[in-house]
Amino acid sequence: MAAPVRVVLVDDHEMILAGLQAMLSGFTGRVRVVGQAAEPAEANRLVVSLRPDIVLLDVRLGQHSGLDLCRSLSATAPGTRIVFLSVYDDEQYVFEALRAGAAGYLLKRVDGLELVRRLEEVAVGETVVDPTLAGRMAASVARLGRGEFWPGANRGLTQRESEVLSLLVGGLSNRAIAARLHLSEETVKSHLRTLYRKLEVADRSAAIAVALREGLFR
């Protein structure tokens, strides 16, 4: 029999880590959890030390970005494949994950057997995407080609990030943006951090300058 796929789990919620451990414990002949981490620095240390076949992580890790961790691990441990397991079912996150070097993007509603199958596929070189997202991705690519997407989609912005940027360009504060979109201020700040990274800028004034220069909002 083939050796089990060696996996490191990365999530900032202890309950999720415990749940994944319990879910995968019934498949020890096929998948073996060799380590777990709650934040990027710990994850980097574990992966460099253990050299697992796969790292299973979330898009967001508290105040940190799983996408940034994916880029870091792709550089420091190129033999380890990255699979995202997230609640975010937005196809733009999938595009961003694949651009960051991931080999898969699955949703947290996946059951244990399906998760094991997907991990085994990744371990032998496949790229996997949750079936409910795969079709939407194909439609998104077609719409992007026809110019039917929201402003900033070509820069990897999600529709919500585009809405936040639009209000930013309109001069609204974080509190006003939160009120307009019915979000918490912390969620708005999280969206801003992500769109800054995607636009390759450091602050709101630079983001506004890019949006105006590229004609994203008129």
UniProtKB/TrEMBL annotation:
Q: Where is the HTH luxR-type domain?
A: 150-215
What keyword terms does UniProt attach to this protein?
DNA-binding, Phosphoprotein
Classification via CDD domains: LuxR_C_like, REC_NarL-like
| UniProt entry tagged with the keyword Methyltransferase | no
Residues of the Response regulatory domain: 6-123
What Pfam families does the database record attribute to this sequence? GerE (PF00196), Response_reg (PF00072)
Domain of life of the organism in this record?
Answer: Bacteria
Q: Which InterPro entries match?
A: CheY-like_superfamily, NreC/VraR/RcsB-like_REC, Sig_transdc_resp-reg_C-effctor, Sig_transdc_resp-reg_receiver, Tscrpt_reg_LuxR_C, WalR-like
Span of the secretion signal? none
Residue numbers carrying 4-aspartylphosphate: 58
**Would the keyword DNA-binding be found if you checked this record's keyword annotation?**
yes
Instruction: Please name the PANTHER family in this protein's record.
Output: TRANSCRIPTIONAL REGULATORY PROTEIN DESR, TWO-COMPONENT RESPONSE REGULATOR
Designated name of the protein: Response regulator transcription factor
